[in-house]
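User: I'm designing a mutation panel for Trehalose synthase and want to avoid disrupting the core. Could you give me a predicted structure to guide residue selection? Please restate the sequence first so the numbering is unambiguous.

Assistant: Good idea. Sequence first, for numbering, then the predicted structure tokens:
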Amino acid sequence: MRMTETSDLWWKNAVIYCLDIETFFDADGDGTGDIAGLAERIDYLAELGVTCLWLMPFYPTPDRDDGYDVTDYYGVDRRLGNHGDVVELIRTANDRGMRVIADLLINHTSDQHPWFKSARASKDSPYRDFYVWRSDTPPDTSDQVVFPDKEDSIWELDEKTGEWYLHHFYSHQPDLNIANPRVRDEIMKTIGFWLELGVSGFRVDAVPFFLSDVGLQPEDKEVGDPHTYLKQMRAFLGRRRGDAILLGEVNLPHDEQQLYFGQNGGDELNMLFDFITMQNLYLALARADARPLVDALVRRPPIPPDCQWATFLRNHDELTLDKLSEEERGEVFAAFGPDPEMQVFGRGLKRRVPPMLDGDPRRVRMAYSLLFSLPGTPTLYYGEEIGMGEDLRAEGRMAVRTPMQWSDDTNAGFSTAPARRLVGRVVEGGYGPEHVNAAAQVRDPDSLWNFIRNVIQTYRSCPELGWGSLTVLDQPHHHVLAHQLTWHTSSIVAVHNLSSEPVTVPLRPAVPGATAVMDLLQHGHCDVEDGAVELALEGYGYRWLRVMHDGERRLP
């Protein structure tokens, strides 16, 4: 194993940190976080160990969908700053060893975008075909809407022209017509523009929806296989900046997800979020039974060597459970969100991890240890590193998009503005800033922040976790996951107890000639006798072990 191999495909063992600029830190005191404020907090993220910053939308917007309704792909929302601020942020992040990726929102625009304003004004508009229209009354499509509590169709009648336009999301977010070469050209120019300003790639929003051919006429389908356009995007990205990535939001079954990596050696998306493993992880936690998670991991299809899965416990949306069966989803609801106010869209939860796990620090730390030890690239959502909670009074997904809790000062140290002017309400109660804040945790060696910082440092020293091949190790306890990741001749074994009961786990690492296992999160090692070792785990205990051989020269 050569560490230099890991520097090319940086995304294989990165630590991604997602944040919304407007809720992170307010530098100018107007109640809204801004780019200058984020730049002031870059050292906090660097000290934590973040290597890739994922910025949620910062483009001009009417803000009816928290920035995902864009009016200018080339602009910066003036509440947040300007292009100069973006360049300074990227430069500062790069100086600390952090790359920056941005949300690429190409499924839809805001209905206030100049393109759509022109398109709906006249059927003869040059921008009419930037969107998808139909003149006949659409059938019932209530089963296809993304937000069933807000919309009952994916078609909306536009009164002025008497035709319906397509929108998979909100009716104020008309879908772009990806079959139109001019639309594809605009998307390429958008990608090129932000690459020139220094971003290292994009998180691509709602990929299956913008590749959908719903509503297209036969003559429009010149793209043929919709994946052709993803290949073109990837090729363009590679020409403009060879080490840039496309990280896709593709919430589909594993066999369908595989198609989005590309069938020609990985020529489409570089990375995909693994929604299936995430959902089964919560089912495993709810049952205190590792088998659902094992099933998800072993059913992952093989992917090209240049590609990667992105793993996560929490993201900026609802914690979706849509790929579980109704019965399984009911189990997770009962365990982690039994009250209707904790649920959203009938398919997910609007909660953060610590409240779901009843604030049990053993269980919370075990969950994050598990996240970082799974094969793939871990992604954190801002505030996870300090154990922030949610605001259940907020509507839908906004429950987990609350101001970052920097200190126990007024407004959690997020802003000096009056509370009524804040972009969002600060969490109250047991997870409020007087109990949960970054300033206190950074100084406390026993805090969750320092635990995650240590896990990140250990993860970064273990390229096997991002590059290795997976083996689930046989052992007799259903509530324990023991897995091994091997890259070249080096192996890491991770063992996690999903139960509150202590257990002794007999293991036989799948490495010939192993003489010892070195504990990476604690000090010490265990000798391997006749190829086997026994590990004692406390309730919700966990161990990361490097398999050692005689004459091993690398640091543990």
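For picking mutation sites, this is relevant: The chain is about 25% helix and 15% strand. Residues 181-196 form the longest helix (16 residues).
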